[in-house]
Amino acid sequence: PSNVSVVDPETMTEVTKITTGSMPHGSRLSPDGLFQYSVAMMSGELFEIDALELKVSRVLDLENNMMTNDKKESMMSSMVEMKHSMVKPTWVIPHPKENIAYIAGNGSNEVIEVNLDKWEVSDRFKTGKGPYNLEITPNGKLLIGTIKSEGKTAIWNLENKQELAVIKNTTSVSHGIAISSDSKYAFISVEGIGGEPGIVDVIDLNSYELVSSVKVGKQAGGIAFWKKEI
Predict the structure, then answer these.
(1) What pTM does this model have?
(2) Angle at 33 between CA 47 and CA 66, to 5 degrees
(3) What is the pLDDT, as a whole number, of residue 67?
(4) 13-19: which pairs have CB atoms within 8 A and are 24 or more residues apart?
(5) Strand-pair partners of 131
């Protein structure tokens, strides 16, 4: 088992560590700021942390669709019966408008939909090889995913789960995703291999086309979008 760190952003100090599963991956707060979600890549679990109490509130097994609501029993089971997940989840993103979360199954080549009210897997749909990061447009209409092992970015319509486009990125190893606040553009950080520069690709979410790219530092990983208020 590993930890999720809670950091005070003003003083940049670690407030506490919360034990979750093996190899935590991804970290996103719910739109209301009350819960934090992450996945454990090696043990194949989704963790929900109460952002006020700073404790794990629920754990979901993403392979067996098991519902584990009791905090202590869930945590003990996770720690004692550690397994090597075939799903290998790497990212979770809560929907901005609905009580649903989407998870990248990096090992099982799928996106997993979780109903957060019922705390159970509600859908699964296949992707290319090695989905890694996921983001949802602020308007809640599109799901964007990096297909890391193929160097591609995929776009789905969340209303019917239809794959709208698969776009080849400028270089290899597609990684992070950021979406503009107007839901018009996706910014994809692409690592490259070896001495290749990292690249940020810009995808138009109306035409589903790669419209620009810029070289950045090597092994470009995470990326965020910031809109300056005037």
Answers:
(1) 0.89
(2) 20
(3) 39
(4) 15/54, 16/54, 18/49, 18/54, 18/55, 18/56, 19/56, 19/75, 19/79
(5) 147
